[in-house]
Design goal:
single chain, 386 residues, alpha/beta, Rossmann fold, Dehydroquinate synthase-like, alpha domain, six-stranded parallel sheet, two-stranded antiparallel sheet, 8 strands
Length: 386
């Protein structure tokens, strides 16, 4: 196991009725900006509960943060927050709203061009406005981590950044806020959490047995509760387990002391930037094909995953590895998530184009062994197009 430091300062408020507890987490004299997406929180009652919890505090609303939050939209929020002298940001929504709010929090006090912070991965951030979250879509884990992914559509970029200053101060996780979610978003969330876990688990063994077991438990839980919560969206227990599992998939716990991959995400971000495909769906069209291309280096973990998560114990090693990948594909497909890029009518030159974009940006090589180059990216995406 590698050396590591671990601190997660986000306070979790989990369960029914926990939105009311916001009142004790926000200073009484704070000027609060509520950030949200398309307005569903007004329809399902979440907005009213948040406003009631904030009481008489001055509140500024900023809605319209889109999926794959866009730099131009977020900069309008930054300008308004500066004008209104906002003390705290309260993100109410899913990962896109939370990620966008982290950018806003970083940009408000930054003296230079905030986009340069993103391009530098968050390095150089000196101060950020405090933020809290009310999660309404389990998926990204953004409610209790310091990471965000922002798009800039005018330049065709989608980039990740992070800073310890961007951990939310608190996160409200009430499963009942998710009952009205569309099936597509719930399925996306299950796959997103699954691949987050894979990026930290599916590398090579370093003797971190507890982290492996945690990861396998998360994967097994998603496989178990994912279909149930899709079929019965108002089943509180399955939705609660899904919500907590998605948080644990990317709050830093299972990534301690282990090598991490993140190549699937890096490639997937390019597909979203080019075609606007849902983030989780890009992950599903990349991951199985990446696993096959990288199977030699990941064989030990693929065998372990197959045995512990899927109960695959018969056959030779190569057959068991392929069966583990096939079971993963089948699981994604059972949720209604395609595993072929060809489903989205992507252009034939997409593999080479994605590889070239990453190479030109200086991103390559990627992967836990830094051995995924432009040629391998092209092979992975060609397989997904076939």
């Amino acid at each position: 196991m590698y050396n590591f430091e671990y601190k997660n300062p986000t306070k979790i408020l989990f369960g029914k009725g926990q939105i009311a507890c916001i009142s004790r987490e926000v200073p009484g004299d704070a000027r609060v900006m509520i950030t949200f997406g398309g307005g569903s929180i007004r329809q399902n009652g979440v907005y009213d509960k948040v406003r009631a919890a904030l009481g008489t505090r001055p509140v500024i609303d900023f809605g319209g943060i889109e999926p794959n939050p866009d730099h131009a939209t977020l900069m309008r929020a930054v300008d308004e927050a500066r004008t209104e002298k906002v003390d705290l940001l309260l993100a109410v929504g899913g990962g896109s709203v939370l990620d966008g709010t982290k950018f806003i929090a970083a940009a408000i006090r930054h003296p230079g061009d905030p986009w340069e912070l993103v391009r530098k991965g968050g390095r150089g951030l000196q101060s950020a406005v405090p933020l809290g979250t009310v999660l309404t879509l389990p998926a990204t884990g953004s409610e209790s981590n310091p990471f965000a992914v922002i798009s800039r559509r005018e330049t065709g970029e989608k980039l990740a950044f992070s800073s310890p200053l961007l951990y939310p101060r608190f996160a409200v996780l009430d499963p009942e806020t998710t009952f009205s979610l569309p099936t597509r978003q719930v399925a996306n969330g299950v796959v997103d959490a699954f691949v987050h876990t894979f990026e930290q688990y599916m590398t090579y063994p370093v003797g971190a047995e507890l982290q492996d077991r945690f990861a396998e438990a998360i994967l097994s839980t998603l496989i178990e509760v994912g279909p149930v919560t899709l079929a019965n969206p108002r089943d509180y227990e399955s939705r609660a387990n899904f919500m907590w599992t998605a948080t644990l998939a990317l709050n830093g716990l299972i990534g301690n002391g282990v090598p991490q991959d993140w190549a699937t995400h890096t490639i997937g971000h390019e597909l979203t930037a080019l075609y606007g495909i849902d983030h989780a769906r890009t992950l599903a069209v990349v991951l199985p094909h990446l696993l096959r291309v990288q199977s030699a280096g990941k064989a030990e973990k693929l065998l372990r995953y197959g045995a512990r998560v899927w109960g695959i114990s018969e056959g030779d090693n190569s057959g068991r590895v392929e069966e583990a990948v096939r079971r993963t594909e089948t699981f994604f497909e059972s949720l209604g998530i395609p595993t072929r890029l060809s489903t989205y009518e992507a252009a034939a030159d997409t593999p080479a184009r994605v590889a070239r974009r990453l190479a030109d940006r200086g991103t390559l090589p990627i992967g836990e062994r830094q051995d995924i180059d432009a040629d391998k990216i092209t092979r992975i995406l060609r397989a997904s197009l076939s």
